[in-house]
Amino acid sequence: MAGQPLSTLQAGAADPTSKHRLKLENNQPKGRAGLGVANIVGLTCIRCGASYPTTIEMDSRGCPACHETAPANLKPIYASPADPRSIAANAPRSLWRYAHTLPCSPDDAVSLGEGQTPLVEATRIGRSLGVQNLFIKDEGRNPTWSHKDRFSTVAVSVARAQGATVVATASSGNAGASLAAYAARAGLRCVVTTFGGSADAMLAQIRKYGATVLPLANKMDRWTLLAEAATRYGWFIASPYRAPVVGSHALGIEGYKTIAYEIVEQSGGITPDWCVLPVCYGDALSGVWAGFQDLFAQGAIPRLPRMVAAEVHGSLARALVAGSDRLEERSLAFESIAVSIGAPRSTYQALKALRESSGCAVPVSNDGLVEMQERLARSEGIFAELASVTPLLAIARLRREGVIAPEDRVVAVATASGLKDLDRSVGHPADKTIFRSTDDAWDWLGRNADTLMVRQR
Ligand SMILES: [Zn+2]
After folding, report:
1. What is the enclosing helix (H) or strand (E) of 121?
2. How far is ligand 1, taken at its centre, from the CA of residue 245, in Å?
């Protein structure tokens, strides 16, 4: 095992309830000198288990010992394990009600009221997919209309506690919009590097929050610029910016654990059999899995769910079959309209969640994506982004193949709102017909929707 043994770290020295301790930590110099987080005593590699002090440079390479063989992200080591169920009576109505499980004091939280999204029982679409107990975790109800807010609220809180003045990300949309919003909330500056493939609404949203947007023709230049900025100016970089990719900032990912806490709490303590997410670099998949593991470790749930990744280009499915820890870059066989998850390679952190949960990865193409989006909207009243309905396509396939049983309890995480990528999901301009009279409107209904013209009672 490489790295510094945990026993040599200052475990127990940090008291998460001590304001004095927090202030000392916050006054530490930035960057390599510490994370500026009171209740974290170190970091550990999710693959080899090596432990590192909080002074390790968070440089998007993940574990130094694993970097050459199979790059893997780090995760924080808490001073003491916390029970997600121990919620204070005066806890805020946001994911910060679980602050005792997060790498930041609630006093330092930069919040817009994120989390606490509804878990909607989706009986009609469930029936059409052959699943009796389907639930949609509607993450489009977050402040910037995507699940990325769970990451950004933690990442920006940590950045500000560290004394950062500039936060930055490479993002095709939702992550950039979210980071920009939380930076605005915190009074920090935000830089978002993008490429030509972004959806228009997301790009506009990023700019509206006042972020500086740097579109780069070469996709990899987005990361190169961020690496240079980290070295030259010490910007706090939230997204991945090194290849091979390990995932986003390890402390921000902790925010995604709260999705699992909420699912179980909203289900009256019942664990789903399956939890299905759209997956790109697997930050959310990995975080949600960690959340279920926390609950299991605390005895809050008697068993763990199986995790499913709906992915575009198949790097996880390939790695699962090959048994490799190193994911290969897949050639882009087609351009996905699910722009939020279009990367050619996922990460070890996602692979680990699938392996540990006996889960699976289901490749999804563009076929049926818009139809599924409209089916969800029409049958349940939930309008989700195209990437966000890929779990439903995955569930349909796993049901057809007999992997998911009809009576299984299935949660699909719908990660973002359908307003985010209208330019991809609406293939033709909306009908511009305007009726000149009510008679014209009635004539049209008679020809196109005469079932509306039946007296109800
Ligand atoms: Zn390692």
Report:
1. strand 119-121
2. 14
Question: Measuring CA to CA, which residue among 7, 1, 44 is closest to residue 251?
Answer: 44
Question: How much distance in Å is there from the Cα of 453 to the middle of ligand 1?
Answer: 66
Please give the distance, rounded to the nearest whole angstrom, from the Cα atom of residue 2 to the centre of ligand 1.
7
For residue 303, give every residue at least 6 positions away whose Cβ sits within 8 Å of its Cβ, in sequence order, or none: 271, 296
SS3 at position 15: coil
Distance between Cα 51 and ligand 1 center (Å): 9
Q: What number does CATH give the domain 119-142+252-425? A: 3.40.50.1100
194 is written with which tokens? 């993008």
Strand-pairing partners, residue 76, are 43
Topology adopted by domain 148-248: Rossmann fold (3.40.50)
Q: What is the pTM of this model?
A: 0.91
Burial profile 304-322: b = 16 or more Cβ within 10 angstroms, e = fewer:
bbbbbbbbbbbbbbbbbee
Contact criterion met (CB below 8 Å) for 271 and 291: no
Q: How far is CA 15 from the centre of its chain?
A: 29
Residues 387-440 have pLDDT tens digits of 999 999 999 999 999 999 999 999 999 999 999 988 889 876 667 789 999 999
Strand order of the sheet with strand 274-278?
119-121, 133-138, 409-414, 274-278, 306-311, 360-363
The tens digit of pLDDT for each residue in 336-363 reads 888 888 888 999 999 999 999 999 999 9
Q: 360: CA distance to ligand 1 center in Å? A: 23
- Which residues of the chain are in CATH 3.40.50.1100 domains? 119-142+252-425, 148-248
